[in-house]
Design brief:
With 428 residues, the chain is of the alpha/beta class. It is 36% helix and 15% strand. The structure holds adenosine monophosphate. Adenosine monophosphate binds next to helix 3.
């Protein structure tokens, strides 16, 4: 299938061509025509499936074809959980909208609001926003959302997970009742389903079908390891494997700092990103990771959200997440076109319960490999790490993501990219 058959305008096709895309990804093939028809869409899609183009392209088309009011009120609102994701969506809008007279902007917290307000005053058609800053500006009377025709909730599961439900509800109250709604989520807990049911009208269900594509296999492995030996093992894996780029996940900010220091002492170029790091530090760390100056980026789940790292051969879970869906998000960041990505988890006895939950969620028994010299103490406690060491427990059972029977998961096309942050979670 080609982009030509999706009903997109010449101006958009030209921009797509300039980006170098030749084939629409499965989610794009399914979502674009439905969105162009004005339907509500409920999409099950992770980062890396091409979901952003899946909604930005048709929105650009709808708005460019519609009646344009001279003062340019916000006509499409895209809500995302994190700054980085918001910034990336905005970048995509700019690129895809190169040949259209559509103005977009992005607003998020952590930076001066003045330039954002000035942009809004000039009039914009598409607003990409994180919920917190949007509410702030709304409370100050600096933004009107009364002309919104299209609402997108991107990474809706993350937004709920990060405590944005209240904010979303408040935003919904100031939007016109008649509008088109698009909801994207990687996982579907009870809460997400409830949110979707309250927002969407007769939605078209769209699902990325990763099992149909095999370009980007992710090999998943478990290395059982004594808790106190994990740092040594990770340093060994990176050094002896001569790895050039590895994303490492820890459960806490303190854990990320400690591990980064140990890696640096061992001669590995590493940096940590987490909620305590300022925007500047995060941007620098990411830039260094991308250009190869840094070998290892050590991140908490929240900090990793929205990060755009195109080619990622290795992901290591230094600690397993206590929210099983986070595992799916984490490993979804590896894999690259035509080559395998590798997701390795170092699992100590106190993480046995987390591993069991993850295997239940992904529907796979993950293969274990014992590295000699790192065996867990057979008498070590298998009691899970206490609450407070990670995130609050989820309270609903997630939808089982589709995977094939082998211990791998697949991307729809091309490189995956990770996602990121927000500082609401105290310890990550
Ligand atoms: P997303 O899932 O929206 O985060 O997109 C993941 C990556 O795929 C981004 O780097 C996009 O630029 C890229 N991408 C999106 N659509 C296509 C396509 N049809 N062909 C190739 N790459 C794409």
């Amino acid at each position: 299938m080609s982009f030509n058959s999706l009903g997109l305008s010449d101006a958009l096709l030209k921009a797509i061509n300039k980006k170098g895309y030749t084939t629409p990804s499965p989610i794009q093939q399914k979502a674009i025509p439905s969105i162009l028809e004005g339907k509500d869409v409920l999409a099950s899609a992770q980062t890396g499936t091409g979901k952003t183009a899946g909604f930005t392209l048709p929105i650009l088309q709808i708005l460019s074809q519609g009646k344009q009011l001279s003062h340019r009120p916000v006509r499409a609102l895209i809500l995302t959980p994190t700054r980085e994701l918001a910034a990336q969506i905005f970048e995509n809008l700019k690129e895809y909208g190169t040949y259209l007279d559509i103005r977009s902007t992005v607003i998020f917290g952590g930076v001066n609001q003045k330039p954002q307000v000035a942009q809004l005053r000039n009039g914009i058609d598409i607003l990409v926003a994180t919920p917190g800053r949007l509410i702030d500006l709304q409370n100050q009377g600096l933004i009107s959302l009364s002309k919104v025709e299209i609402l997108v909730l991107d990474e809706a599961d993350r937004m709920l997970d990060m405590g944005f439900l209240r904010d979303i509800e408040r935003i919904l109250k100031v939007l016109p009742a008649k509008r088109q709604n698009l909801l994207f989520s990687a996982t579907f807990s009870k809460d997400i389903k409830k949110l979707a049911m309250g927002i969407l009208h007769n939605p078209v269900h769209v699902e990325a079908t990763p099992e149909n594509t095999t370009v980007d296999a992710i090999i998943q492995k478990i290395y059982p390891c004594a808790k106190q030996k994990k740092t040594e093992l990770i340093i060994k894996l990176i050094s002896e494997g001569n790895w050039k780029q590895v994303l490492v996940f820890t459960r806490t900010k303190q854990g990320a700092n400690k591990l980064t220091e140990a890696m640096i002492s061992a001669g590995i170029k590493a940096a940590a990103i987490h909620g305590n790091k300022g925007q500047g530090a995060r941007t620098r760390a990411l830039a260094g990771f991308k250009d190869g100056t840094l070998t290892a980026l050590v991140a908490t789940d929240i900090a990793a959200r929205g990060l755009d790292i195109p080619l990622l051969p290795h992901v290591i879970n230094f600690e397993l997440p206590n929210i099983p869906e986070d595992y799916v998000h984490r490993i979804g960041r590896t894999g690259r076109a035509g080559a395998s990505g590798e997701a390795i988890s170092l699992v100590s006895p106190d993480e046995t319960v987390f591993l069991r939950d993850i295997e239940k969620l992904v529907g796979l028994k993950l293969p274990k490999e014992q590295i000699p010299g790192f065996e867990p103490d057979p008498n070590a406690s298998t009691e899970p790490i206490k609450a407070g060491q990670g995130r609050p427990q989820r309270n609903s059972t997630p939808k089982k993501p589709k995977t094939d029977n082998k211990a791998r998961s697949n991307n729809s096309f091309g490189p995956r990219r990770p996602s990121q942050n927000n500082d609401r979670r105290s310890n990550r």
